[in-house]
Write a structure and sequence with these properties.
The chain is an alpha/beta fold. The chain has one domain: Alpha/Beta hydrolase fold, catalytic domain (Rossmann fold, 3-Layer(aba) Sandwich). Strands 2-1-3-4-5-6-7 form a seven-stranded parallel beta sheet, sandwiched between helices. Helix 11 links the parallel strand 6 and strand 7. Helix 1 packs across helix 2 and helix 7 packs across helix 8.
Length: about 325
């Protein structure tokens, strides 16, 4: 390692140490530890695959809004296309759908009617293979619901799986919005701790990441990447930022939130529900760059004023 890289690494280590010792760092670390403990207890309940078909039929059979709370009625009445667009959640490495318990609840309470999860095996050896499974789920969901496009939210490795589907398998034709939470878009040196085939794909400069860095002209999916300054699994932490010349990406810095806690952060859940409630015509209108989450005004729309999308989320006749 040259002197410049060494000096940069030392400065990053010092900043990390100061953050951990700060009040925000202590609170964030305590929340992370508590959430990991709670998640371990809830993990067995997320192993079984969820039932999506019955849920979709129940939603499609709805003829009255009288049993819904005002917030849900407001979203459905204000933009029925946004409320009905399916949302697919993709968990991370050695995890399952239980990590999205609070995010799913927040989306449901906002009025989103179809929230599904891709549960892939913890013994998966290849991101590409998991992306093919996501492709199958998206296709089935569109056929069952009649919607042409969906939203995808991926946590950690799940964000890379969804990104591979969007960039390399033509998923931009089906995915209106991709949200990633703490995903190692530029790799993570923490992946050097495990020698498995899947984890090697997460190392900086891996063949998978080089493939994702290849040109992706005409990608129609809008992408929002959340990354944290307290993420212990992404080394360096800026690697969770997505920078690609052919992708319309907005990177959002979340301060004082750990890797696992990104999926339960009240700020993040609020921002995701607000983002997905506002559809734009092409699905790719975002402001590039880095936006600190604390600087985002709660009342401001995440994108241009909602309109009836020309292709995104539209139901087939």
């Amino acid at each position: 390692m040259d002197r410049t890289a060494l000096a940069r690494s030392l400065r990053a280590t010092q900043r990390g140490a100061r953050l951990l010792c700060s009040p925000a760092g202590v609170r964030g670390t305590a929340t992370e530890v508590a959430w990991v403990a709670a998640h371990v207890a809830a993990y067995p309940f997320g192993v079984a695959a969820e039932r999506s078909r019955s849920t979709c039929r129940e939603d499609l059979a709805r003829f009255t809004l009288g049993d819904l709370p005002p917030v849900q009625r407001g979203l459905i009445l204000g933009d029925v296309v946004a409320a009905g667009t399916p949302i697919i959640l993709v968990h991370g490495l050695v995890d399952n759908r239980s990590v999205f318990t609070l995010l799913r609840r927040g989306l449901r309470r906002t009025g989103f009617g179809r929230v599904l999860t891709l549960n892939y095996s913890p013994f998966t050896h290849d991101v590409r293979r998991a992306a093919a499974r996501l492709e199958d789920l998206v296709q089935r969901t569109c056929e069952e619901t009649g919607y042409e496009r969906v939203h995808v939210v991926g946590h950690s490795l799940g964000g890379l799986i969804a990104r591979y589907y969007v960039q390399r398998l033509g998923g931009d034709a089906r995915v209106h919005t991709l949200v990633t939470l703490g995903s190692p878009h530029a790799g993570t040196h923490a992946a050097r701790l495990l020698p498995t085939a899947l984890v090697r794909q997460l190392r900086p400069g891996s063949d998978l990441l080089q493939e994702l860095a290849a040109p992706a002209p005409g990608c129609r999916t809008r992408v929002v990447s959340y990354w944290s300054d307290l993420d212990a699994l992404i080394v360096p932490k800026r690697s969770a930022r997505l920078e690609h010349p052919d992708l319309a990406v907005r990177n959002v810095l979340v301060r004082g939130v750990g890797h696992m806690s990104l999926a339960i952060s009240g700020q993040v859940v609020h921002e995701i529900t607000r983002l997905l409630a506002h559809l734009d015509p092409d699905g790719a209108t975002v402001t590039a760059g880095v936006t600190p989450l604390a600087a985002t005004a709660p009342a401001a729309p995440a994108d241009p004023a909602p309109t009836a999308p020309a292709g995104a989320g539209r139901r087939r006749a």
